[in-house]
Amino acid sequence: MYRRSHYLKKIKPFIDKPVIKIIIGMRRVGKSVLMKQIVELLKEQNVSSENILYLNMESLENDYIKNYNDLHNVYLQKFQTIKDSRYLLIDEVQTIDNWEKTINSILSEGDTDIYITGSNSTILSSELSTLIAGRYVKFEIFPLSFSEFLLFRDKNCGKPKDEFKKYLRYGGLPAIHYFEMNDDIVYQYINSIYDTILLKDIIERNKIRNINLLENVYKYIFDNIGNIFTAKKIVDYLKSQRVKVSVPTVQNYLTLLTKTFTAYKVHRYDLKGKRILELYEKYYAGDIGLRNSILGYKDNDIAGLLENIVYLELLKRGYKVNIGKIKELEIDFVTEKNGNIEYYQVSYLLASTKTIEREIAPLKKIEDNYPKYILTLDEYLEKNHEGIIYKNLIDFLLE
Questions:
Q1: How far apart are the C-alpha atoms of 118 and 125, rounded to whole Å?
Q2: Number of domains in the chain
């Protein structure tokens, strides 16, 4: 079991601090494993098992914990004789009705270090965010980055260039490494995760009746990774397929999808007007393997898939990410972190002068001196051109 060192490093400074550690992310990205690794980290710091209560709410042994009263009773029973520091870790906390009442009560007592995970962003928009405003820190867990993917490949790992082809095809869900890297096997596993997300996190939770419509909307999203569109455009497309749907319904379905971290909505940012634009956003998949398992992998889709991989990498590195608009031109990603801005264009190959000019044109219009990058799978690149830095995309992912 490989340590998710990137996340543990972020969480470690908050151990034993009076804030709830909230770990969020899509199903099966490794939140449960990370929680177990936190438990191991605590034990390495000489915390006794008697002081730790770890509850995995997807385990049948905890099925009797239905609501906040049940949770509170379990907590009291575990720690009735423990006087010093206590550690409470709850995996998939959203399955417990009104869980925030117990969490807030325990937090107010001040002697328990609390960690919770959830597969739906609504846990942060519930009553909890009001009850504990300013008393929690959030950590979002993503599928494996390419560098992590190589670690998980271990003895089966080939050259990065060859492994990247697998990553591009199968994505970064950790458990795919239990299987042979084969379309039929891996996609069957990933499809089962997608079905669970649809059923448990979207359909049951939100009482969706028209399941076929829901799936049609999501297939449209995944088939248009990296393309700008609106809910109205999806409605028009579905109507052309003789499917009746309204714009508010599509907007609702899009919101539900992003709440499960299965997709991310990315806004456009007007670099001249210095403002977020309300219309025409992009969507990226929470995992490209998930997208490919639904629609199938096609080489013609590589441009959007590369964008998707870079987008998730930038999020994992802690950047705020928007799409850039400068006059009529578009910059793939405008990032900000600690007041520093960077610009990124992602291109499959710079195969011609025309392609190069198309990619650098928007970057040349930017008047500030922040770094500007073009990421491409070309292996032999000049280091920079007119102040624009060229990088091999695989090298960038492995930095």
A1: 12
A2: 2
